[in-house]
Amino acid sequence: MQARITNTAVSPELQQAVNLLYKSAHSAGVPNATLELVHLRASQINGCSPCVDAGARAMRKAGETDDRLFAVAAWRETPYFTDAERSALALAEAATRLADKADAVPDDIWDAAAKHFSEAELSAIVLWIATTNFFNRINATTRQQAPQNWG
């Protein structure tokens, strides 16, 4: 599969807007590892290979363990994540799969996250989920590929 357009075709104005979203989401006090887990899980759901690849590589470079990286898709069945991370992952899944049920983000998922994160932190997590889904949709539509620079 070949990309339809290159990411370098993105306008400078759009790049500036994306940078502001990133800065906003990452300045609210949510642990970076939590935001990266949310990004990775939403990207897995959406099948965004460049985001899954870049997210996992960035997490590994930041010191994330292989146990946790390999288990993100099965986070419910593993002991590797904190309760706060689990609540953020559940929120990411629900907000990414909006069309899967009538009450896309039910109160129990929201309330679980609200036990661990302040309103400002929840806002940042929701913004980061939305931003990730934005990237995923652009990449899927334009058929962006994960780079083949393994090893």
Automatic annotation (TrEMBL):
Name recorded for this polypeptide: Carboxymuconolactone decarboxylase family protein
Pfam families: CMD
Organism taxonomic ancestry: Bacteria, Bacillati, Actinomycetota, Actinomycetes, Micromonosporales
Carboxymuconolactone decarboxylase-like domain: residues covered: 12-94
SUPFAM superfamilies for this protein: AhpD-like (SSF69118)
Top-level taxon: Bacteria
